[in-house]
């Protein structure tokens, strides 16, 4: 078994209202110096050793991320794909 992590983030050109809410809240609690926050999702999958890179790509692109507005990164064994 292997652990695979899929990080999903809004594309840079997409407005991130949750991230902007965090930026505003930081100011209210006295934290300065943070100019931008992007909030995303992290998925951890335990997969059999025979699950292919192509299968992982299909899972990420069709099920975990909305590729119209989100980018994703697949991390296996500490290395991004």
From TrEMBL:
GO molecular function: ATP binding; phosphoribosylformylglycinamidine synthase activity
Descriptive protein name: Phosphoribosylformylglycinamidine synthase subunit PurS
Lineage, opening ranks: Bacteria, Bacillati, Actinomycetota, Actinomycetes, Mycobacteriales
Task of the protein: Part of the phosphoribosylformylglycinamidine synthase complex involved in the purines biosynthetic pathway. Catalyzes the ATP-dependent conversion of formylglycinamide ribonucleotide (FGAR) and glutamine to yield formylglycinamidine ribonucleotide (FGAM) and glutamate. The FGAM synthase complex is composed of three subunits. PurQ produces an ammonia molecule by converting glutamine to glutamate. PurL transfers the ammonia molecule to FGAR to form FGAM in an ATP-dependent manner.
Subunit structure, as described in the record: Part of the FGAM synthase complex composed of 1 PurL, 1 PurQ and 2 PurS subunits.
Gene name linked to the record: purS
Main location group: cytoplasm
EC number: 6.3.5.3
Cellular-component GO terms for this entry: cytoplasm
Enzyme superclass (EC): ligase
Family: Belongs to the PurS family.
Native source species: Corynebacterium bovis
Catalysed reaction, written as an equation: N(2)-formyl-N(1)-(5-phospho-beta-D-ribosyl)glycinamide + L-glutamine + ATP + H2O = 2-formamido-N(1)-(5-O-phospho-beta-D-ribosyl)acetamidine + L-glutamate + ADP + phosphate + H(+)
Keyword Plastid: no
